[in-house]
Amino acid sequence: MSLVVLDHATKRFMTSSGGLHTAVSEVSLTVEAGEFVAVVGPTGCGKSTTLSLISGLEPPSEGTATVAGKPVTGIPDGVGYMFQTDAMLPWRTVLGNVAAGPMWRGVAKDKARDQAREWIERVGLKGFENYYMHQLSGGMRKRVALAQTLVNNPSILLMDEPFSALDVQTRALMQNELLNLWSDTNAAVVFVTHDLEEAITLADRVVVMTASPARIKDVFTINLPRPRNVEEIRMTPEFIAIYSEVWQSLSSEVEIARTTGANRVA
Amino acid sequence: MSLDLDQTTTETQTATVSKAGLSAKQRMRRHKALVYTLRVVLLVAVLAIWEISCTYLFDDFYYSKPSKVWNQLVVWFTQGTSSGSIWVNISATLQEAVYGFILGSIFGVVSGIILGRSRLLSEVLAPYIQALNAIPRVVLAALFVLWFGLGMTSKVVTALVLVFFPVFFNAFQGAREVDRNLVNNARILGASRWDVLRSIVVPSATSWILASLHTAFGFALIGAIVGEYTGATHGLGLLINTSQNSFNAAGVFAGMVICTVLALTAELFLGALERRLLKWRPPAQSTGATAV
Lengths: 266, 292
What we know:
Shape of chain B: flat
CATH class of chain A: Alpha Beta
CATH topology of chain A: Rossmann fold
Number of helices of chain A: 8
Structural class of chain A: alpha/beta
Radius of gyration of chain A: 19 Å
InterPro entries (chain A): AAA+_ATPase (IPR003593), ABC_transporter-like_ATP-bd (IPR003439), ABC_transporter-like_CS (IPR017871), ABC_transporter_ATP-bind (IPR050166), P-loop_NTPase (IPR027417)
Mean pLDDT of chain A: 90
Protein name (chain A): ABC transporter ATP-binding protein
Oligomer: heterodimer
GO molecular function, one term (chain A): ATP hydrolysis activity
Low-confidence stretches of chain B: 1-18, 285-292
Keywords (chain A): ATP-binding, Nucleotide-binding, Transport
Pfam family, one (chain A): ABC_tran
Structural class of chain B: mainly alpha
């Protein structure tokens, strides 16, 4: 039994002008426990909507989403979600933010704080427990978000372009950090990005989506050995071979997205 | 003080440090001293113009003058007023304003947050709230004196009604403008509806609510005074009313001076409360520049 199953899932939204916009169309995808799946596609194609379907934040218009054998109605147990933009509470300290999840899930305050401290240390923020969000750099905030999500021990980790706002060096650092932390768990990861290099570096499988509405175009298995060092793996011939293979598939979609985008502007 | 004003001072500070041999801190202190001096000069000038013009040019029977106002204040504080000791009157007004302020704020915050979170309720009630808000509510004071008598209750209710609306509208706005991202993140992390309300909606509406409380205390004071003016046994509004009826312009001004002092004192407390509750917020740009 696969952990996550999307079966012909379609999502339509009502647009402000009253029309229907299809964000995701007929997506069928399965993710196993412990598997790292990256979803790539042109910017704005509807990749994030796929994550909302799994997380239960949005119900599918047609088709089904199943997590751990149960159809998704509310937010399924064991789901963690890292958003593209910061979603921590600015009026709470690092400790308060990381401890929030366990406390909302009914863990006693002291215990929740102990768990939070442990994760703050694991993401490398020891000593920053009492800082507020505005006192931290972009990379540090991502670390807080990571700790906040992982402290709940998710069995499914949904990530929506979590590192896209970071500079190149910090991004590589966070990618390594993520791989390290993930390797200790048996969590399934669905990682949405528009950056193909990031997708191949991190994932076991790369799913290429079409320009809007998002359909699954191709799925590539990435057989690069683990543990991986994100900065070194990019230079290996195997990586470059896979990259050009996947890019063949993705580039035409990017082209389509660009033309329609240009038309929309014009 | 505005942001760019502060920044220009910082720039001129660094530029002049070497010339005058003064540290930035000394320059800052001098600047502050200058501001305070000019404030005092301005006040003295206005009072002097008033005093002189009303002594030689205009009739101080109607316009009064600072020395007369001062004498009136001295009389009130040393010999008492027509309606008892000045302290009894001040405390009556203050109690009415504070009770009205507290009750009005509580009602305003609670109903603002409930309506802000419930789309149906806010859509149903919107035209009625607009209509209620359009009523010139000070006239209600007359009605409340009829209903609740000359005692404290009618003034507290008047103040409450005046305080309610600004607080309500801000709490409503604050509860509606909650970042969806924060709510989604919290729900994924395991927050129930109640947790979302308590840990996200209320704190993010707090800065909106606190902003409204500053004006709201002014309204509470207006409510109390107008209520007393309409009919009362004690209070600053009554003193002002009595002074007016006996053609005592100095008495009206003296009442206003006391009200101003009360309002400024309340402002001080509210400012402290705001700083305490919003300590998580990033400091304003100007202080950041000073820290560097």
